[in-house]
Amino acid sequence: MPLSRFFLASAFVLLVFPAAAQSPDAMRFAGTYSTSTNGGHGGCTIRLTANTTIFGGYGASSQGCGGSLMSLSRWNIAGYNIVLMDGNGQILASVGPNRGGLSGGTSDGSSVRMTRSGGSAGGLGITPPGFNMSITPPGFGSSGGSGCRVYYGWNGTKCAPSNDLDAPVLLANATAIIRVLGTNNVRQEPSFSSGIVGQIPVNSCVRADSCGRYGDTDWCRVQYNGRTGWMAKQQSASNGRRYTLFSNRCGS
Asked: pTM (2 decimals)?
């Protein structure tokens, strides 16, 4: 082969098959995760790499997983969640920090829990956009008063169920109907220092179109009476107790 043709062919290969790049942020996530769906165990293992792919995102694979996770091919950081995708870029699951690991939901309606093999996700030492793994999730730190760490409803006396401590994890373009457990201030931004745009009465069901962790609290963006604003999932009271302000579903 003439030398000029050799260099031309080499340049073509470099353009079409670029060397895999590694993102410093992604390297902190890279590893093998023991994964369960719908509370089961089943021997599902997910491996996340820090190598970018020519199709976008970072490389990923699954072993022994059922449902949509069988076709896992890549992953990426998207806003306040980590999304798991197939080779076509379709979102298979969306997970976020929760109780020392990653929890969320799959596109086929299953809950998913990921714990890094050999340790919890909290040991990754990461701070990707929207995450703060140094914060103990609400409901798992110390609490004022005895009994519940988080109480169900404002001034409630019952413990909040474990599956209702965090705001719902929403996939792209998804919404959720949530129920207000106590008269809840709706704020302009996801912050207790933000201005109040209104209040939603107890037991009202409203639609949330975005939820995520802001600071040390989960918030959801809702629409009510023609107004749009943010509601906090939990709030601490002057008595030292922490309460959930809405349920993740419309029903008792």
From this structure: 0.47
